[in-house]
Amino acid sequence: MSRAATISGIAAVSAAGAGIAWLAVHDATPSAEDQWPLFDRYCVECHNAAELTADIAFDRMSPDSIAHEPEIFETVVRKLRGAQMPPPGEPQPDNATRRAWISSLEHALDAAAAASPNPGQVALHRLNRTEYKNAIADLLALDVDVKALLPKDDESDGFDNVANVLKVSPSFLEQYIAAARVVSELAVGLPNAKRDSRVYYAPANVNQNYHVAGMPLGTRGGMLVEHFFPADGEYSFDIGGLARARYVEGLEYRHRLILAIDGKKVFEGEIGGPDDVEAVDLRQAAAVAEINGRFENIRVPMTAGPHKIAATFVARTMSESDDVLQPFIPGGGEVGIIEGEASPLKIERLEIDGPFDVSGLSDTPSRKRIFSCRPISPDDDAGRDAGMDARGRATQARAGMPEVEQRMEQLPGAVAELPCAREILTRLTRQAFRRPVTEADLATPMKFYEQARATGDFEDGVRSALMIVLASPEFLYRFTAPPANAAPGSVYAVDQYGLASRLSFFMWSSLPDDELLALAERGELDDARVIERQVKRMLADPRAAALVTNFAQQWLDVRGIREIVPDPVLFPEYNPDLGEAFAEELTLFLGSVMLEDKSVLELLSAKHTYLNERLALHYGVPGVRGDTFRRVELADENRWGLFGKGGILLATSYPNRTAPVLRGAWILEAITGTPPAAPPPNVEAFPETQEGEQPKTVRERLEMHRSNPTCNGCHGVMDPLGFALENFDAIGAWRVKDREAGEAIDSSGQLADGTVLNGPVDLRNALLEDPTQFVQTLTEKLMIYALGRSVEHYDMPAVRRIVRDAARDDYRFSAILAGIAQSEPFRFSRAPGADGAGAEAITAQLVGDAGTDARGMAMQGAIAD
Predict the structure, then answer these.
(1) Which one of 191, 265, 337, 468 is separated from 483 by 20 to 30 angstroms, measured CA to CA?
(2) Please, are residues 391 and 404 in contact by the beta-carbon 8 Å criterion?
(3) Which CATH number fits domain 196-360: 3.30.1380, 2.60.120, 3.40.50, 2.60.40?
(4) Where are the beta strands (DSSP E) in 618-772?
(5) In terms of Cα–Cα distance, which of 508, 517, 514 is closest to 134?
(6) CA-CA distances (angstroms) from residue 425 to 429, 432, 443, 602, 852?
(7) d(C-alpha 54, C-alpha 51), whole Å
(8) In angstroms, rounded to a whole number, what is the distance separating the alpha carbons of residues 301 and 270?
(9) What's the pLDDT tens digit per position in 446-491?
(10) To 5 degrees, how large is the angle CA 346–CA 349–CA 350?
(11) Sign of torsion, CA 380 381 387 392?
């Protein structure tokens, strides 16, 4: 395919999808020539040939420069959109002039890009931990503890799926190969599974006074884990941390502790009360050891596969005890001991050991997924008939069998097993490699099957072959190789199976399903209508939750809110239950807009949220009872949309105070897409209140900081945005007075364009006056996530076209997703340059090296094992 032909194809696709809208929008746009004098009026004073501020000299440029230096002018557009240029304090164009100026530049940039498309390149793309976990779940119906198997991924542009920071070193490959062995053993099972132990620890800052989500009703505290049992047999459970040294906290009161498997109680024991107190007083350490021993070595017969294990306490009620109790307090839904009188017992760890006396392998979800057929017994008459397989179908004639399968015929009974083994491995390899498989693809897995079957049984062979499939670069990496005849630097179309993978990892962070692969096989993923239908189908699938938990939580930088610990002296009302509620509210709220395919503008404006009793009390919303989250319509406009969510406000504060600078910078980065520049070196620290000093409000201290001219440029943009949220304290509670200074909160401010703000309602309304800015920011973030690379200046025309098209559908989430999936950067790529450098050349080299190393190391490990 010639470069000219491919570019013509891109242009045709663009015209079919969005050309008419583009022409309609830009016909009324003022030309760059008409707007060029604005550079002389507002920019040349600093950006000239003499001063060369930021190495830009507009006095040496003309309107023709826009097409020749698009990177500079895309930066200009972004700075103008964010009111960052001209800098605050300098003369500013009025809003109408600014909009016309931006529009003229975007028109010229889009026209230049249409004449010379550049879809960019994506480097070798290793599956990150989340993608690996999801892929294993879809391929093998197995939920793996990926944090225990694989190292943490690096991040770039706010995401952990950006290809150029996902390491591909030999040490990483070794860890992925080790993971392949563990996963294959868990999935197939080990009839001779070795005894092993695993210890789970309760988070140190979790309050166990109240009911834990997921636990049986009528319980409090404890731990809930999902553990994978490798084989049928007896296992030992130790519930630890109840007593230490010579003192058992909370021993004055009787407690009933239960162990439940999949919701069914299998053990109950009692701890505490007068007898235990007396025993500890008399025998001290020996009594403590005896008390702990009651909850150790609890033997339970288990079947292979995943099971939910709960170790918890039966919650006492007023009728069961005369002890000092209190009713519900913020933080949970069960009665508990009054703080200060005594603290209840806590479970700190759960150890699972085994199996003892393996009795077999039950049909786990993984085994059902893997073993789509079963070989007949070699002792059966049919087993001696080399012409039939386990399902009674004709097998290959010996003369037509690959060499490895002919050698297998020399093993007793192997001939009846080969067709089934081949069927299993063909299906799994096709799903894992995300494309049709060839004889060359199957050669190595079949060789491993042969070696393991020679010394073991059929399942040993499948287990070994599965391991090599999971260690293959074809599974671990995503890449799009250019056609063999592609000219250096030419643009080429990503093949159909590559598109299926791009779409599934974008929407689901996982493998394409059978429907996507079937569409790829028929060549239908070039059809815009097919893409739109698939996007809506995939958005309705439970796997699309990854767009919330994986994409949105990284975009908004709220993945870690459960780990944030505010100052307990300044915020004694905060506890881990509240942090958990913040996280759950955000997940449910984001899902209610994104997964229910609403207009993405509702992320800023929605009047509803999701509350349980703990969070409702924190927000001052009446009428919500119990731990269960439910949708609530909010009367208080200040809480509408993302700006009123406690998780956002907590994540953009310091442990001891609010941070208008952090909140303003977060809005610029996540909402308006105009991130501030990095602070200059040696900038003075924010002035904290010193001991003995009259406390000042955060605004007063920030004004002192902004008096430095080098700081005022960025702070003039950030601070008004952040101060608009100042009525929310560091844990998201509404306030009218500064807790430390005792003065009234001042949430007023003025944006660079003259817009006056006074609180979150004004902030939201100001941002929604130009909804395209927020939608464009969200689209850019989604593009980074979808492509696995940074969005560059040459991608911005495609971003703008997606936003324009989505406007026709009220900016529904699916319209943006479909626009990305139909865009040039998603569907096309650029071949390496003439010098041989470039992402695809690097990809080809790394894939070759990785393939050799991965298969070689896996083979050595398997043989050694």
Answers:
(1) 468
(2) no
(3) 2.60.120
(4) 630-633, 748-750, 756-758
(5) 508
(6) 6, 10, 10, 46, 21
(7) 9
(8) 22
(9) 999 999 999 999 999 999 999 999 999 999 999 888 888 889 889 9
(10) 120
(11) negative
Domain spans in the chain, listed from the N-terminal domain onward: 196-360, 365-457+471-478, 557-769
**Nearest by Cα to 499 from 480, 483, 475:** 480
- Say if residue 191 is preceded by a cis peptide, omega within 30 of 0: no
Element (H, E) at 326: strand 325-326
User: Which residues contact residue 685 at a Cβ distance below 8 angstroms, ignoring those fewer than 6 apart?
Assistant: none
Give the H/E segment covering residue 176: helix 170-188
Would you say 831 and 849 are in contact if contact means Cβ atoms under 8 Å apart? no
Phi/psi for 413 (5° steps) reads 75, -5
User: How many angstroms separate the CA atoms of 189 and 460, rounded?
Assistant: 9
Question: Residues 646-683: pLDDT tens digits?
Answer: 999 999 999 999 999 999 999 999 999 999 877 766 66
Q: Contact, 331 vs 577, CB < 8 A? A: yes
Cβ(604)–Cβ(642) under 8 Å?
yes
Q: Which residues of 432-463 are buried (b: 16+ CB within 10 A; e: fewer)?
A: bbbbebeeebbebbbbbbbbbbeeeebbbbbb
Residue 331's nearest CA partner among 212, 218, 250 is 212
Three-state secondary structure call for residue 200: strand
Tell the residue number behind the tokens 């969510």, with chain if given: 645
Helices (H), 574-651: 576-594, 602-605, 613-619, 646-651
C-alpha to C-alpha distance for 724 and 720, rounded to whole angstroms: 6
CA distances to 349, 408, 426, 449 from 420, rounded to whole Å, are 44, 13, 10, 12
Can you tell me the distance from the alpha carbon of 144 to that of 194, in angstroms, rounded to the nearest whole number?
Answer: 19
Residues 532-565: pLDDT tens digits? 999 999 999 999 999 999 999 999 999 999 999 9
Q: Which residue has the tokens 């991965």?
A: 854
CA dihedral 451, 452, 457, 458 (to 10 degrees): -80
Nearest to 142 by CA among 471, 414, 472, 366: 366
Alpha-carbon distance of 456 to 34, in angstroms, equals 80
Task: List C-alpha distances in Å: 423 to 48, 372, 406, 408, 417.
Answer: 69, 8, 16, 16, 10
260: helix, strand or coil = strand
Q: Determine the length of the chain.
A: 865
> Could you tell me how far CA 281 lies from the centroid of its own chain?
51
Measured distance CA(588)–CA(545) in Å, rounded = 10
172 band by pLDDT with thresholds 50, 70 and 90: confident
- Position 332 confidence tier, pLDDT thresholds 50, 70, 90: very low
Is the model's pLDDT at 264 over the cut of 80?
Answer: yes
CA dist., res. 709 & res. 211, Å (int): 53
- Sequence-separated (6 or more) residues with CB below 8 Å from residue 724: 747, 749, 757, 758, 759, 760, 762, 763
Work out whether the CA dihedral 88, 92, 94, 100 comes out positive or negative. negative
Q: Which helix (H) or strand (E) holds 454?
A: helix 439-455
Look at residue 299 and give its three-state secondary structure.
strand
The Cα–Cα gap between 168 and 280 comes to 56
Give the residue carrying structure tokens 């999971």: 470
